[in-house]
């Protein structure tokens, strides 16, 4: 399918200044900005910046960011699921994954993540996709947030709800390995019935388990 990308931007107040939320950005644009040293949830900042540049230039890849001046302080990624995961097995061309969302610690608590997701779904092209996200408790910053597993899970659900993602049941072993893990998804208005059925088949592959 043709992956349309339309640039959007907005500003939100933060302390004595404004933050810029924008995207999808090209790899070249991401490379031109500084990358906050606190963005360490998935890999060291310098390596994560390289990873984002690579995703941004994929046909389906989308990187939306939060900037404080010239520094990226948060981001969200949209890309096809990892080939090693079950979500790629059905070869559903209009299923993409919200693979990561991260906000530097000192920018949390101001609804930055929620607003970044709202920006991401301003694009009408997102109505052509099933967007999924897999939430695993071992990726969560429990120490930095001061929340327990269930408090963090509730916070993540509220943030994803701001982008229209809802909880979906699944028998995926990795998600089922801990009760706080979950699958969330948003099915766009123009997604056809066949794609939804194929998504359901990916969610449940062990229908006869007891």
Automatic annotation (TrEMBL):
Matching InterPro entries: AcuA, Acyl_CoA_acyltransferase, GNAT_dom
Keyword Zinc-finger found: no
Sequence ranges assigned to domain N-acetyltransferase in this UniProt record: 55-119
SUPFAM superfamilies, alphabetized: Acyl-CoA N-acyltransferases (Nat)
Keyword entries, A-Z: Acyltransferase, Transferase
Keyword Metal-binding: no
An annotated Gene Ontology molecular function: acetoin dehydrogenase (NAD+) activity
Gene Ontology biological process terms in this record: acetoin catabolic process
EC number: 2.3.1.-
Designated name of the protein: Acetoin utilization protein AcuA
Name of the gene encoding the protein in the UniProt record: acuA
């Amino acid at each position: 399918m043709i992956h349309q990308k339309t640039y959007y931007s907005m500003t939100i107040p933060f302390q004595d200044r404004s933050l810029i939320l924008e995207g999808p950005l090209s790899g070249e644009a991401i490379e031109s900005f500084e990358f906050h040293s606190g963005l360490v949830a998935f890999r060291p900042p310098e390596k994560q910046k390289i990873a984002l540049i690579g995703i941004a230039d994929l046909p389906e890849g989308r990187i939306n960011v939060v900037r404080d001046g010239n520094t990226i302080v948060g981001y969200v990624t949209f890309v096809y699921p990892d080939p090693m995961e079950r979500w790629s097995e059905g070869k559903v061309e209009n299923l993409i994954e919200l693979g990561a969302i991260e906000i530097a610690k000192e920018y949390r608590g101001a609804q930055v993540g929620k607003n970044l997701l709202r920006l991401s779904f301003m694009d009408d092209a997102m109505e052509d996709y099933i967007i999924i996200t897999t939430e695993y408790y071992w990726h969560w910053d429990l120490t930095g947030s001061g929340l327990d597993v269930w408090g963090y899970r509730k916070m993540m659900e509220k943030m994803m709800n701001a982008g229209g993602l809802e909880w979906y049941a699944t028998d995926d072993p990795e998600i089922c390995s801990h009760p706080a893990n979950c699958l969330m998804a948003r099915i766009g208005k123009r997604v056809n019935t066949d794609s939804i059925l194929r998504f359901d088949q990916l969610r449940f592959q062990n229908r006869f388990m007891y």
